[in-house]
Amino acid sequence: MPTISKEFSGQTVITTFEMTPGTAQDLMDELRDAYDQFISRQPGFLGAGLHMNDAQTRIANYSKWQRREDFQAMLRTPEMRERNRRLSALCSRFEPVMYEVMASYD
């Protein structure tokens, strides 16, 4: 799990996925495969965490990148575009949002 720190100067991305409990595990399996086989091997990738709520209706993904451009380049690859189509089929919506860490507490 990546460390959250105000001193981090790279790009933080939080992506939320909304789905039904019937597709939650399939979506989590697709996300794990995407990280294992592709995303974690992309230039600038620093780490990520996947979280699912108890009702299995939401997944939150926290990822860290060296630069905003690294994350954007990964999204534009043909492989990730195909993976995003599969992810979209398993959820009602998902939205990646870039953030700046303003504070962290241990």
From TrEMBL:
Keywords: Monooxygenase, Oxidoreductase. Residues 11-102 form the ABM domain. One of its GO terms (molecular function) is monooxygenase activity. This is Antibiotic biosynthesis monooxygenase. It comes from Albidovulum sediminicola.
